[in-house]
């Protein structure tokens, strides 16, 4: 079972994603605090991270760049998401593997998660 960490300061989005991804068979943990992200990654060892671009007091792009420059975490795919329309243009500069805009289409989200995890739907 693939493990997914979701990082967003919107608790409603965290709840929806946790339920949705759990129903799809993933082991999911969530955090609403940017400062907890690195600790959560260390303890949970996710196979994929869904990371909001703006998290109360933290910039998800900076967190992503830290993850991608660290030998222990650079292999973990990161899908960033944001309600800000211009955010998609900059996420590649920070090493993110993919982007999805909020509000997100559930089917697109699952497709992107499966693609990053190498899960075939055939």
Assign the structural class, choosing from mainly alpha, mainly beta, alpha/beta, alpha+beta, or little secondary structure: alpha/beta
Number of H- or I-type helical stretches: 4
Mean pLDDT: 92
* CA radius of gyration: 13 Å
Uncertain segments are none
The largest sheet has its strands arranged as 2-1-3-6-7
- Quote the beta fraction: 15-25%
Description:
It contains 4 helices and 7 strands, in the order βαβαβββαββα. The protein has a 5-stranded parallel sheet with strand order 2-1-3-6-7, sandwiched between helices. A two-stranded antiparallel sheet has the order 4-5. The chain has a single domain (3-117), classed as Rossmann fold. The mean pLDDT is 92. The longest helix is centred in the N-terminal third of the chain and has 13 residues, at 11-23. It is α/β, with parallel strands linked by helices. It has helices at 11-23, 37-44, 60-68, 106-117, and strands spanning 3-7, 27-31, 48-52, 54-55, 58-59, 78-82, 98-101.
In short:
With 122 residues, the protein is α/β, with parallel strands linked by helices. It has helices spanning 11-23, 37-44, 60-68, 106-117; strands at residues 3-7, 27-31, 48-52, 54-55, 58-59, 78-82, 98-101. The chain has a single domain (3-117), classed as Response regulator (Rossmann fold).
Topology record:
Elements (H helix, E strand, L loop, with lengths): L2 E5 L3 H13 L3 E5 L5 H8 L3 E5 L1 E2 L2 E2 H9 L9 E5 L15 E4 L4 H12 L5
Parallel strand pairs: 1-2, 1-3, 3-6, 6-7
Antiparallel strand pairs: 4-5
List keywords for this structure.
Rossmann fold, 122 residues, 34% helix, 7 strands, two-stranded antiparallel sheet
């Amino acid at each position: 079972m693939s493990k997914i960490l979701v990082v967003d300061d919107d608790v409603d989005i965290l709840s929806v994603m946790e339920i949705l991804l759990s129903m799809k068979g993933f082991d999911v943990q969530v955090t609403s605090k940017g400062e907890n992200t690195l600790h959560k990654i260390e303890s949970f060892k996710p196979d994929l991270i869904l990371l909001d671009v703006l998290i109360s007091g933290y910039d998800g792009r900076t967190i992503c760049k830290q993850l991608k420059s660290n030998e222990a975490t650079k292999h973990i795919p990161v899908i960033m998401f944001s309600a800000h329309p211009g955010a998609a243009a900059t996420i590649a500069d920070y090493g993110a593997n993919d982007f999805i805009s909020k509000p997100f289409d559930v089917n697109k989200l699952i497709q992107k998660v499966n693609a990053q995890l190498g899960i075939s739907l055939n």
